[in-house]
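Tokens in:
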């Protein structure tokens, strides 16, 4: 009887919600008549609303813990006791001890206007991707914080050691776990593929060490360095016991992880605000079966090139090299229908944006030579793009994005040094 009542209740709710959905286009605003339904817009509204509601529920139940909503001042003698108490409140299988080193990182991740405010916004998009991979491989959900300390949730981040992506993987490790790294594609920047690879790597490390803090250390500096530290410390198998024998960066790695985990969990207690990311929350995937430049899409449907790059950071020079097999293209959900409607038009623009890579009829020898020359010199003035400098940008990162040299950008923009400022416009020629 209870099951029957539940089914009737669900059906009645579905009937009512379906009648409303037929005339809803954006977050509950009744605008569109049933005969002019745009299903992509409806799906976009539903997914964005669901993502927001799920995030709010998570905040209310697990994040916004009401434990003294005002954070203590730096000189408050009760600060250490409060930090220690809050860490003990967190139910996790990863050891989260408190000490002076950890305190420094908690202060770093909770300071006013700090990195965590941007991370809290970006986490709405990335954390569900991380959590799905972590769940798939039976790893602690707290590891979703690992990309925070690795890359601050910047998918195309690159370290001085050439580790790349949200999870900061080296090429050898990435390829071992099946990631593609070519002149066109770097799957280490793909949020879904890199998360899957990183979780398999973490799982393999746990099979070796059986301790999550040692897994974190090995992920950062490599298992070889952890093994040497264990041996030098007298075969002890605890992160804090081998701490002084680890590389300098790794000595701060686990404390940073604890600090970021604390900052994420107790954001409300420190009055942190959430900065809304510039990319859409609701996205979907289409498969591309022909070589395509992202500008073929942005010039045809109303999706900016910056948004396409944000959603598809694995394509190094804005080209999807779909020659031998299909590649995914992530789009805002509301734009998927537009892409399908304009698909033939989008593909037909390859002769405009892919002259360097396609054998095109009526493509003269003189033009081919000019293109080859520009490709080899890296300084041609054809195909100019204007890039507006953002906070945190450096010339090296911009050069990597467009596959050009720093010296080229300096020459094109008459820069005497490497200093650039947010809001500055740079000309990029490709």
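Residues out:
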């Amino acid at each position: 009887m209870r099951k029957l009542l539940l089914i009737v209740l669900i059906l009645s709710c579905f009937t009512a919600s379906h009648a409303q959905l037929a005339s809803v286009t954006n977050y509950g605003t009744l605008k569109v008549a049933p005969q002019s339904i745009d299903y992509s817009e409806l799906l976009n509204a539903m997914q964005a609303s669901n993502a927001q509601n799920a995030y709010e529920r998570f905040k209310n139940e697990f994040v916004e813990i009401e434990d003294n909503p005002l954070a203590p001042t730096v000189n408050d003698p009760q600060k250490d006791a409060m930090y220690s108490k809050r860490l003990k409140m967190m139910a996790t299988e990863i050891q989260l001890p408190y000490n002076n080193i950890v305190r420094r990182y908690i202060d770093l991740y909770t300071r006013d206007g700090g990195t965590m405010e941007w991370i809290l916004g970006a986490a709405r998009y990335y954390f569900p991707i991380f959590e799905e991979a972590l769940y798939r491989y039976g790893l602690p959900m707290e590891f979703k914080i690992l990309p925070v300390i690795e890359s601050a949730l910047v998918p195309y981040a690159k370290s001085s050691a050439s580790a790349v992506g949200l999870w900061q993987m080296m090429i050898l490790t990435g390829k071992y776990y099946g990631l593609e790294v070519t002149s066109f594609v770097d799957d280490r920047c793909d949020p879904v593929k890199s998360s899957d690879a990183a979780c398999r790597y973490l799982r393999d490390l746990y099979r070796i060490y059986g301790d999550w803090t040692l897994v974190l250390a090995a992920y950062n500096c490599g298992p070889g360095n952890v093994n040497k530290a264990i041996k030098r410390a007298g075969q002890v198998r605890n992160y804090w016991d081998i701490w002084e024998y680890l590389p300098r960066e790794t000595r701060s790695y686990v404390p940073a992880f604890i600090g970021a985990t604390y900052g994420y969990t107790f954001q409300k207690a420190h009055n942190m605000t959430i900065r809304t990311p510039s990319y859409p929350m609701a996205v979907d995937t289409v498969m591309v079966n022909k070589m395509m430049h992202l500008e073929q899409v942005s010039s045809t449907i109303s999706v900016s090139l910056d948004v396409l790059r944000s959603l598809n950071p694995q394509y190094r020079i804005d080209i999807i090299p779909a020659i031998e097999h299909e590649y995914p293209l992530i789009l805002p959900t509301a734009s998927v229908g537009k892409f399908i409607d304009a698909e033939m038009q989008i593909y037909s623009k390859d002769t405009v944006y892919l002259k360097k890579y396609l054998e095109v009829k009526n493509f003269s020898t003189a033009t081919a030579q000019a293109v080859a020359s520009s490709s080899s010199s890296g300084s041609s003035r054809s195909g100019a793009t204007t890039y507006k400098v953002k906070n945190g940008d450096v010339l090296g990162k911009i050069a990597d994005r467009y596959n050009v040299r720093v010296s080229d950008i300096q020459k094109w923009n008459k820069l005497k040094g490497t200093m650039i400022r947010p809001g500055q416009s740079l000309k990029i020629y490709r």
